[in-house]
Amino acid sequence: MVSALSTIILGFLLGMRHATDPDHVVAVATIVSREQKLAPAAWIGALWGAGHTVTIAVVGGAIILFNWAVPARVGLLMELAVGVMLVVLGLYNLRGLTRLTRLTGLTGGGQVVARFRSGQIVRPFFVGIVHGLAGSAAVALVVLTTIRRPLWGVAYLLVFGVGTVAGMALVTTAIAAPIAYSTRRFEIHHRSKLQLATGMLSVAFGLFLVYKIGYVDGLFSAAPQWVPE
Fold first, then answer.
1. Which among 7, 40, 47, 134 could disulfide-bond with 124, CB atoms 3.0 to 4.6 Å apart, if both were Cys?
2. Tens-of-pLDDT digits for all 229 residues of the chain?
3. Domain ranges of the chain
4. b/e per residue, 71-89, with b = 16+ CB within 10 A?
């Protein structure tokens, strides 16, 4: 019992650390670059973590409870979804940048900000769900090697998810703090540069993941090699 409790506490801490994985930080930075206040940024991180937790609990829980074995190609496809999502997020930011530049000359800055905040609730939650696909198998396999009782394993996943929510809220707040400060000082022009930088970074990192998963790990080959991370 004590060992299981210790493992679950460790799960919370690992969940917070999991929030700092590079693909997670790139994804939320791309979304948060549109924000000018800390509170909405923290909520974006929490929503991302909530979506991530849903997938971890459902997919990881099924692996633990039913001893599902994830084929290598399926595992790589789940990770490929993250790369594709990063590319889409980056392109969305770059598309929004062109609209932002065009609308700035036609409307006030406050109206532009209001327009770009639409959909900020659904987007991070959905992105978190997709990112959870890539990590669910790895987390579940770790649980299977350390916790023998399935219900304790599911509890671990939930606590891990809570840790991810807390960690991502902190990460997005830390990212948003300099953005909010610089936006207040330099207004819309500095914000457009941030959107450009995060958009290009997201596209580049997403394409790198697609290449790595598709060709280095062999998703598009006859013998894919997958090691859950």
1. 47
2. 556 677 778 888 888 888 888 888 898 888 887 776 778 888 889 999 999 999 988 888 888 888 887 888 988 998 999 999 999 999 988 886 665 555 444 444 444 444 445 556 788 999 999 988 887 767 776 776 677 788 888 888 889 999 999 999 999 988 888 766 665 555 555 667 778 888 899 999 999 999 999 999 999 988 888 877 6
3. 2-216
4. ebeebbbbbbbbbebbbbb
